[in-house]
Amino acid sequence: MAASDSGEELSMPPDFCCFSLLPDGGRLLQTYSTWGDEVRTKSRTAGRDSVIILFRAREVRREVKMDGCNNNHVNTPAHRKVTAVIIGAGNRGKNYAGYAEQFPDLMQVVAVAEPREYARSLIQKRHSLPQERCYPGWESLETVEKLADCAIIATQDQHHVQPAVAFAKKGYHILLEKPMAVTEEDCRSIYKACRDAGVILAVCHVLRYHPPAKKLKDLINSGIIGEVVNINHTEPVGFWHFRSFFCSR
């Protein structure tokens, strides 16, 4: 048996062990085991995001440093500031636009398209947009001359395909909120439009770039923990978050 961060006992065969990964302090929490021994993982931070990995033990493991685990922003010099239009100013569109607030030397929001006036006004205020750069929908923004390097599309899932195709055809690189679309046909249409236009298409599976997740992938690829046979990712958040995270995984 092994204890999780919440104190729950995890049932496992005697020749397996596990460790927990937490994004606090940049370290792999201490794990110890040999073949057939009981395993316990100790957490200093209850209630935080954690990942419990079950793997076939090879040798005794102690605490492993995780350099760079807490680097939320990789300080790589940019060739120039990237400009973006926000299509859909809900929770995700607002959050992605927030990168320009945190790193104004790297990104600038130059326009927003959002049917809800209060959400559109919030982006306008935060990014000092003139009224003529605030559009009631993506269709009206699509009719004007290209304004930016990329379009950040964060509309409702079923409304991804039309703006993604339209703005790719105008030469915008596309940053598309997950899921890419709700049908295979729509996904293929988006892919084809971006390929034909020669623009970048990126889907916002953000955990692929999250430092703890990247470090976890590096550890698995390195083989240091042995053969991974199961991963149980626990994120103690509200029920409304699970639908989004189902799409993320």
UniProtKB/TrEMBL annotation:
<dbReference type="InterPro" id="IPR036291">
    <property type="entry name" value="NAD(P)-bd_dom_sf"/>
</dbReference>
<protein>
    <recommendedName>
        <fullName>Gfo/Idh/MocA-like oxidoreductase N-terminal domain-containing protein</fullName>
    </recommendedName>
</protein>
<dbReference type="Pfam" id="PF01408">
    <property type="entry name" value="GFO_IDH_MocA"/>
</dbReference>
<dbReference type="GO" id="GO:0000166">
    <property type="term" value="F:nucleotide binding"/>
</dbReference>
<feature type="domain" description="Gfo/Idh/MocA-like oxidoreductase N-terminal">
    <location>
        <begin position="84"/>
        <end position="204"/>
    </location>
</feature>
<dbReference type="InterPro" id="IPR000683">
    <property type="entry name" value="Gfo/Idh/MocA-like_OxRdtase_N"/>
</dbReference>
<dbReference type="InterPro" id="IPR051450">
    <property type="entry name" value="Gfo/Idh/MocA_Oxidoreductases"/>
</dbReference>
